[in-house]
UniProtKB/TrEMBL annotation:
It is a single-pass membrane protein. Keywords: Membrane, Signal, Transmembrane, Transmembrane helix. Signal peptide: none annotated. This is Protein kinase domain-containing protein. One of its GO terms (cellular component) is membrane. It is found in: Membrane. It comes from Aegilops tauschii subsp. strangulata (Goatgrass).
Amino acid sequence: MPEDRCYHDHCHKEYFIVLIVVSGLILSTTLAVVVWLLVYKRSKKRKRSREASGASATALVPPLWKVFNSEELRSITKNFSEGNRLPGNAKTGGTYSGTLPDGSKLAIKRLKRSSLQRKKDFYSEISRVAKLYHPNLVAVKGCCYDHGDRFIVYEFVANGPLDVWLHHIPRGGRSLDWATRMRVATTLAQGIA
């Protein structure tokens, strides 16, 4: 009888070892499959996101914006003459109209001089804003950073700034009715979205 018992204990030990090994293999295989699925799904999601952002970015990004130098802007605006100054808030530094040699009109916004914003940060910000393109937003055509003087170059909009039409009655014009104001607000919201 003692031999049966020893044999029986020996069998239990073997079964126990086999059970641990098989359980470990099943657990590690299951874990490997789960990790692989998570990585695969994540990479697939990233690929779809890149494809979607690539397609939408190419649809939304207008032609590249230009870095102007201060001499070009002085030439375009006739040395920032008062005759080229556009109505609007002078607190920001003023906005001027200008014409490129090819005849296209631009609006150049002169920002207040700032020593806080570095050239690299300014260009990075302009790059982000220039990527926004919508029929209801004024397109950024370029910029200039010259020893702390900052300029943003936009496409020219003939009717002037929106705040004048919303809050003041322009010369020779009349204030906007509420239906027009609602249409403007809706299209602006679409542009921002």
